[in-house]
Write a structure and sequence with these properties.
Blueprint (H helix, E strand, L loop, with lengths): L2 H7 L10 E12 L7 E7 L2 E7 L6 E2 L7 H4 L3 H26 L7 E12 L5 E9 L2 E7 L4 E3 L6 H8 L2 H25 L1 H4 L6 E6 L6 E8 L5 E6 L2 E2 L4 E3 L3 E2 L5 E7 L12 E6 L6 E4 L5 E3 L12 H4 L1 H15 L43
Parallel strand pairs: 9-18
Antiparallel strand pairs: 1-2, 1-5, 2-3, 3-4, 5-6, 6-7, 7-8, 9-10, 10-15, 11-12, 11-16, 13-15, 14-15, 16-17
């Protein structure tokens, strides 16, 4: 998995009143994938999606009710967002074709992805930012905010790096955006969605087992935000073997769930009492659950306090599968906010294509080198 994927899976612990907040934008342009829109964009604040655009609807739309507040300050906000994404749709469509040329490809299904955004620690006020490009699931090029240079992990991206490194004005603009403008917008969205984004809900923990020979699953659900750690320990020591941690997944109500499997194949039942699952979140007491057969819920017998697995666990597999598709589309998701007039909403996009950009929009975009360069 490349750095782009790792960042998407990154979970940060929240501590007491101190939290590392994030504002992330995702863009995906595809070629040869008839089941996907040509271009999809999404934006997420603290891992909650708040805006969506795709090439089918051709409209930027809010995904949270609290985003309606933005129009009280800027009545033209959504029109501006839509206009920006329509431009970016053409830019990223060109990026796919450029990448295909760089990799000597003529057909097949291909995906060009961009992830960008910023983080803000509300305790020490430190910030960070990132902008990364990927092609067909592999890292292509990334911006190093500390050195203000582009990093090309593959030779096909070197022409892009050389060209973009020469544009000092755009690099300085990106630095200002990711260290200031992006953070300002993050704080604004946090204020809009305070009742939702800054709420705290404790997890509910269950022990689950599909069959007598299956792993025992520690399933935590209903928590918010998504920054929890779930692990198994034996005799008070955290286990790194015998366990298979899962990803944090969203529930339909906006909360999250996560499961961690424990393989007990070689463990006699009389030793189960040495094991316990621990759900941990900084600022709150740990939630330990002993590996007691009486507490295990199953779908193969009336074991424990009630027989049968909770619905969220039964559909977890299908949810995970669906998320792979949604994740691909979200990787399409929104880049940065649209900068229009004196209200900066999006930073400059890094286009490496010769796509035609409408007059008046070119100042928002990086130079568009010839695809063959």
């Amino acid at each position: 998995m490349g750095a782009l994927g790792l960042l998407l899976l990154l979970g940060l612990l929240s501590g007491g009143s101190a939290v590392i907040h994030s504002l992330r934008y995702f863009d995906m342009a595809s070629s040869g994938l008839s089941s996907f829109p040509e271009y999809v964009a999404a934006g997420m604040v603290d891992e909650v999606q708040f805006v969506h655009y795709d090439s089918v609807s051709k409209r930027a739309v809010p995904k949270q009710a609290w985003m309606d507040q933005v129009t009280t300050e800027d009545p033209d906000y959504w029109d501006g967002q839509t206009a920006g994404y329509q431009v970016y749709q053409q830019v990223f469509k060109g990026n796919v074709e450029t990448a295909k040329k760089r990799f000597n490809q003529t057909g097949g299904g291909h995906v060009f992805q961009v992830m960008s955004g910023c983080e803000w620690d509300d305790e020490d006020d430190t910030t960070d930012g990132h902008q990364q490009y990927a092609y067909d699931g592999e890292d292509f090029i990334a911006f190093d905010l500390k050195t203000l240079t582009w990093v090309a992990p593959v030779r096909q991206a070197v022409p892009t790096k050389l060209r973009w490194d020469q544009d000092r004005a755009v690099k300085q603009y990106r630095k200002n955006y990711y260290t200031k403008e992006c953070v300002d917008w993050l704080k604004k969205y946090l204020a809009y969605g305070k009742s939702t984004l800054q709420r705290t809900e404790r997890p509910r923990v269950s022990l689950l087992q599909r069959s007598p020979s299956s792993p025992v699953v520690c399933h935590a659900t209903g928590f918010f935000p998504d920054r929890v750690v779930v692990f198994w320990r034996r005799d008070g020591q955290e286990l790194h073997e015998q366990v298979d941690p899962g990803e944090v997944l969203p529930n339909h109500d906006g909360t999250f769930q996560v499961s961690v499997d424990l393989d007990l194949t070689a463990v006699p039942q009389e030793d189960w009492g040495r094991y316990e699952c621990v759900v941990q979140r900084k600022g709150f007491e740990d939630i330990p659950t002993p590996l007691d057969p009486a507490l295990i819920r199953t779908n193969w017998g009336k074991t424990g306090r009630d027989g049968g697995l909770p619905g969220s666990f039964l559909v977890a597999g299908s949810v995970a599968g669906a998320l792979l598709l949604v994740g691909a589309l979200v990787l399409a998701g929104v880049c940065w906010y649209w900068k229009r007039n004196d209200s900066a909403k999006r930073p400059a996009a890094g286009s490496d294509t010769s796509s035609e950009i409408p007059e008046g929009q070119k100042r928002l975009l990086a130079p568009t080198p010839d695809p063959k360069s």
